[in-house]
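Exercise 3.2. Students should predict the tertiary structure of the chain below and write it as structure tokens, then compare their answer with the key that follows.

Predict this chain's 3D structure.
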Amino acid sequence: MALSPLPAPGRPAGHPPKGLAPGHPSGVGAAPPRPVRPGELPSVHDALLCVALPALAVCADHGQLTGEGPEGVYTSGRRILSRCVLRVAGREPVALQGRLAAVDRAVFLGVLRLPGDVGPDPGLSVERTRSADGTERVTLRNATGRPLRFPVEIALGTDLADLGAIASGRQGPELAPSVHGTGLRWASGDGWSVAVTADPPPMDSLAAAGVLRWEAELPPGAPYTIRLRVRADRATGTAPSSGAGTGRPGGHILAEARAEGDDPRPGELLHTSVEDLRALLQRDPAHPTDVHLAAGVPWRCGPVTAEALWAARMALPLGTRLAVTTLRSLGRAQLRGTGAESGRVPGPLRDAGPGLPPRCTGIEATLAFPVVLAEARRWGLPAADLDELLPVAERCLGWLRRAWERDGYVPDPGPTEPWRAETQAHAHRAALLGADLLDACGRPGADALREGARALRERFRREFWLDDLGGGRPAVARTADGGTRSQLGGWAAHLLDTGLLDGGRYAQGLLDKVETEQVARLLATPALDSGWGLRGLGVKEPGYNPFGHRAGAVRVHETAVAVAGLAAAGHEKEAAALLRGLLDAAESFGHRLPEMYAGEQRTAGARPVPHPAACRPAAVAAAGAVQAVVALAGIRPDAPGRSVSVHPMPSAPLGAIRLSGLVVAGEPFAVRVGRLGLGMVEEAAEGLQLGV
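Answer key:
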């Protein structure tokens, strides 16, 4: 799915973005469109997002849900609560602070002066705690020396609108409520209903206005607490409404990794990123045992995509279970049969930047599948899972061999489209790691893949490398008539991403040593390194736009790939500079990185600016942060060979650091890197040897 606002490549104009529920119809029962410009998503970067998919709450920092814009509580792509306005003694509390207490929970603090209060000091404090599923606790505290008695009202409402309709400005009016037990209930014409219950029961329920009322009596210093519970149902079954309850994947899917050291930022970023990844986990509706990552909230929580696969790869240090279930979900969509497309994973088109046609996410996923499976095996994938997924990987590699037969390159998205450098890098990596995988499993076809990779390397270096007075650069794409597209951008980081082979060795890259050094130098220039991370397109290139999601914005995924690739290739200075920029950006975002942000040049006192359509949290950003932090230790596992080696950055650019709670060969793994750049394994699976 494209990262851009509406309309996006692969979707007709005017079709809303996918919501939380895969395949859910958009705009059902919606009213005529409101005056929202086509293609413009409501901004959520100032909002507090509580996430525990399929539940999501979008809140302003004052805590009141007013029904404006995307504010509300969502379950499975439907807004089940759009309005929740608290009034005490007929007035709204004065909002003082709103903050996330956890990835799935927000806390709002306010105060109120009541008649009889002396001076400017408020006598009543109001604390609201709201969870992603809409569960809310309102606590009033009497700080005066006298008893208080006053009315409390909570006005509730919902339109049961689809998230896609809300994003397009097409949500309908609020539905009429009815009294239901100790609360209120609403129902739509398409089988959805939602009920809000309260404890203690309200003294009065004004259904016509959607208001619950209490008469609060507080002795001096005493609290008064109201609890609200929201539950949504569909005619076809019950929609899970609790992020912490039934239906949520367990914490065993991803390990609780930690980082401690001289610089506290890696630890804070790693902790938040693991939290975000866990919040973005969602089950396959047709196969509840399989879990994958949503691309990001609030706009991209649909079916499993290539980004979910890349995120699972970058999160392999947290365990292999997520990779297994993501691969399994994608494998079910693989095209079968004997035709030319057999073995390919289907996927939508997405924008590829200025001057290039959209690319196919399905081709990206097809080439990533054997890579993720091969690397998961080296991190400790169980044999039973490998046996199940190997046939799918073989079909992906078979599609790759057929794609090479025509002209030695992999076209994307179709036979007449340009050959993209990034796609060739994915194909080369898939061939080498796939060949290694086939050999290890005693399957045929490895020699043909290695020969294809060798031929691709030779031709790529002849036809994609553009010589110039600055030492040359890779072309972003070539056309069938021999023309080249030379825009340099963050995509070049993928040329350094090679992948692990058996024995902890890195696969050979598409570039030779001199070309690799030149790409490392280019990535470190101010034209690409914004000071906050890699730009998607260099500032001197035609079409550069600091907010262009493929034309100049910083994409965390590409920056993380560059950090890991540069470190593995021995270009520590360049890797460390990008890592520091990423950590500084993360600090500005409260250690919760959006998937992308503006590629404006960093200046003293400035802060990175989020892209208006970026998701936050986002899977590739959170997983990319894990990959970048773990790159400090240079962990190279070889679980089948019962060994692991560490290759930390020699200069220890962030000082001493200890990584713990990682998983190698199915067991906890911890490594320490000292201030002199020496690595020491402190915890590992029994029988796992330290390799060279």
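Discussion points: The chain has twelve helices and 36 strands. Confidence is low (pLDDT under 50) at residues 1-38, 237-246.
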